[in-house]
Amino acid sequence: MNRSIQIVFLVLSIGFFVSAAQADEWQYTFAPYLYGAGMDGRVGIAGREVEAEASFSDVLSNLEFGFMAHFEAANEKWIIISDLGYVGLGVATTVPAADLDVNQWVVEGGVGRRINENFEVLFGGRYFRLDEEIRFKGPLGINVQGDQNWFDPFIGARGKIHFSENAALMLRGDIGGFGVGSDFAWTITPSFLYSINEKYSLAFFYKVQSVDREDDDNGFVFDVISSGPGFGMAMHF
Question: Can you give the pTM of this predicted structure?
Fold first, then answer.
């Protein structure tokens, strides 16, 4: 079942990219951004599980390193999107008492089809790479560590409402996983966009992402909702 879904996804992706490449008058956007998220959920390695709960302030105080960037190419009909994010976090858990270290890569790619000037449908995938370590406190002092990587297809949409020539509100949402990688995943991101001029614009957003993946073969659990504000500056060319 998973193999069939992956094959269908690959075939459709190739078709989308070939069709998009035939169009002209492309415009490009590159946007580095900062995103600070709290997380709430369950994380497990080798059958040992902890409750992961960190507020936005906790994430900022424990952030080891983070890099995020978005690239987009668009014309009148098609959009090609890509997104790269890396973050290293350290979180103290209480149920049970432990220190949790998470290094997370998320790479996103996809295509979109413009329905009209203000609405687009999206189709793509995300690659997740997680390296985790749990150091349990107490007399035993057990340390467990592991890594997982997987791919989630997604479908979604993006809509925009203009308040003026320079300001707009955009809402993006998608669902994915479908048992291919995650059992189920979803993301919703409202954003406020402000255009400084033709070459530069600002984006203020709030992102909520849920990922539920469990691998019974090695006792891996990542059932986490992350949410928090972000800010980016886009360059258009």
Answer: 0.85
